[in-house]
Automatic annotation (TrEMBL):
Lineage, broadest ranks: Bacteria, Bacillati, Actinomycetota, Actinomycetes, Kitasatosporales
Residue ranges of domain Phosphatidylinositol-specific phospholipase C X in the record: 53-190
Single annotated GO MF: phosphatidylinositol diacylglycerol-lyase activity
GO terms for biological process, alphabetical: lipid metabolic process
Enzyme class: lyase
Enzyme Commission number(s): 4.6.1.13
Name the UniProt record assigns to this protein: 1-phosphatidylinositol phosphodiesterase
Native species: Streptomyces buecherae
CDD domains: PI-PLCc_BcPLC_like
Amino acid sequence: MDRRGFLFGAATVTAGGLLGYAGGHPAAARDAPRVAPPRSPRPTGDWLADLADDTPVARLSLPGTQHSAVRFGGAQVARQRRTIAEQLDLGIRFLDIGCRSSHSAFAVHHGAVFQRVLFGEVLLACEAFLRARPSETVLLRLRQEHSAVPDAEFRRVFDLYQAGFRRLLRLDATLPTLGQARGRVVLLADHPKLPGVPYGDAALFDVQDDATAPPAVKYQRVERHLRKAAARPGKLYVNYVGTAVQGSPRANARYLNPRVHRFLTGPHGRRLTGLGVVAMDFPDATPALVHTIIRRNQRAATAAGAA
């Protein structure tokens, strides 16, 4: 069976079939609507193009999404409105994907809720985007979700995807420079048997992911992590903004995302660079925050050139 047959034949994991990304066809990834950032020299589709190849990925400021493919299951479950393809065009460069192993395929889940998309479709969206914009890269955290298969079985299924996406996936265990990552999906392996950069390795990552914090407390932790990332370079900082406590993820995003934006554009945050990954729920509702994170890379590059 060819790659496309494998990817879409695995739709038997659900009797109702799948809703694909951006209309259900890989080519549609290129046609997703784009949001042009104000006062930015490039559209958000290829904003990494102006940055130097020798820039460590760990020193970038990367807008990302939390539970990136979680769009279904009702108000208490959904974390995103846009498809993966649309998120990439918005400027998102970090994806967080949880998969259930089923019928030799990875079905994207959030808890027990199947998100009507397979991991292969996520990779196809990334592949189409990066083929059209080879200056870019996507960091992808992959983890097991709502699945209790043995580690070896999870790895066996991953290897099926790896065989079909050898040129796309960067599976080295070290964090790359931007030049090494361009045109590739950098796998952040949140599973003991997967290849790739070992996500959560304390020597490489510093992660803030307090999923049980109420919104006001969560904001304090997000701000603290932003300050830490700027002050102590050397690791890839990953800062999850969303929470589902004391309200729906969307309601909390309406509270948290604008506050993070106000901090980054206010007197105490406007000079911070090297923020790492800032992973959000519903970033399309606050596009100014995405644009602000992107522009921190331009500011950092200007400062480095003047040094």
